[in-house]
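Notes from the 1:1 (GR / supervisor)

We went over the backlog. Supervisor wanted to see one worked example end to end before approving the batch request, so GR pasted a single chain during the call. The sequence is below; no edits were made to it. Supervisor asked that the structure be written out right there so they could see what the output format looks like.
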Amino acid sequence: MTKTVLITGASRGLGTALSQGFGNAGYKVFAGMREVAADFKGDSNIIPLKLDVTNPTHIIKAVHKVEQAGYGLTALVNNAGIYSGGPADSVEDADVRRTFDVNFFGALAVTRAFLPLFQQQKAGRVIMISSLSGLVSLPGDGIYAASKHALEAIAESLFFELVPWNIGVQLAEPGAFQSGLTGQQTDADANAHPTTDKSAHQKPPLPSAKETAEEIIQLIEQPAHLLRNPIGDQARSVFLQLGLSEQSGRQQFIRRVSGAEK
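Structure output shown during the call:
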């Protein structure tokens, strides 16, 4: 069976690195982007796809294109993201809504659209590209962090809800990496935890987008036992400091109080 993956936000940064990495690993890659501009020439495994995650028509057409290709879908990687930085009282309302539209509502809409295909297959994997900002909200990072906290909340529910269909859900939570992210309200690689990108000149050097992508690709090759997955040494260090390395207790608690054990 052909291994296939759909990646949103594939036009640059981590999205491009993921597309190339999955392609090199033998996957058929549907590389979704708002405008088909990324250069994937010479890579027959990558199929560029016009996909603005805030556009319902684009999402419907993306589902149809994947279905018509006849490969099925092994995994969906919700990578598209934007960033709005600054004190919460200074970020424009439009920027706040746009951040949530892409980072949360867009990821949810794309996931919901592809769930019937996964359920029909009785198999699949959903990877939500979060960030350390999904765990810790720093000063000046509140709006972006809030959107990632929301993404983590819906992923946690889906983690349990989709078990009957053999659909795994995982959060990939990278620390800082080299992304080229600059400025406010940008469609550049928002998942790079931009509040710490300015430390790129310090030692040890930040991992590249390619190195970060390689760790995320490995998630799909492993059983989806854990919801939260730190990506990179910085993220693993934060997990240890926050006591997040042991997740089984939290998962057992949710199963018990929700009745999922039964």
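Supervisor's comment: The longest helix spans residues 93-121.
Batch request approved.
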